[in-house]
Automatic annotation (TrEMBL):
Gene3D superfamilies in the record: Electron Transport, Fmn-binding Protein, Chain A
InterPro entries: F420H2_bilvrd_red/Heme_oxyg, Pyridox_Oxase_N, Split_barrel_FMN-bd
GO cellular component: cytosol
Domain Pyridoxamine 5'-phosphate oxidase N-terminal residues, every copy: 12-144
Lineage: Bacteria, Bacillati, Actinomycetota, Actinomycetes, Micrococcales
Keywords, comma-separated and alphabetical: Oxidoreductase
Protein name: Pyridoxamine 5'-phosphate oxidase N-terminal domain-containing protein
Source organism of this protein record: Cnuibacter physcomitrellae
Pfam family, one: PNPOx_N
Amino acid sequence: MSGIDLTSGEHEKARRMLQEDLIVWFTTVADDGTPHAVPVWFFWDDGKAWVFSQPDTVKVKHVKAGSRVVLHLNAGGEFGDDVVILTGSAEIDPRGAAGVLAGFREAYERKYAAAIADYGMPLEQIGETYSTAIAFTPEKLQAW
């Protein structure tokens, strides 16, 4: 991550939110400039945000076409003052969700245990349904 140091005091909140928040808004742009934003589960690992998706979604199409990506964590705090916005690039990982998950499966299951139970689908089935793995690499961070 060029220019982004999540260990600095200034970005401590961003690091915490990236590790703990369950939902991020994943925004891509179509060829005609139309933005497309969707809330997704994500996992922060080794300087990347990982998103698993069904293969035929708009976001996957946009990533394959080279769209820039913005990740926006939901504003928290009493007055919406916990904000983290990351801008960067994304690519489809050829290993797919199952291959990527092998690297952090236990941590992913801990993070999303309640959501997986509520969703009513075991992680293996989630990995099959949301089989496309998107690797987002941030280049710019805004946080306040």
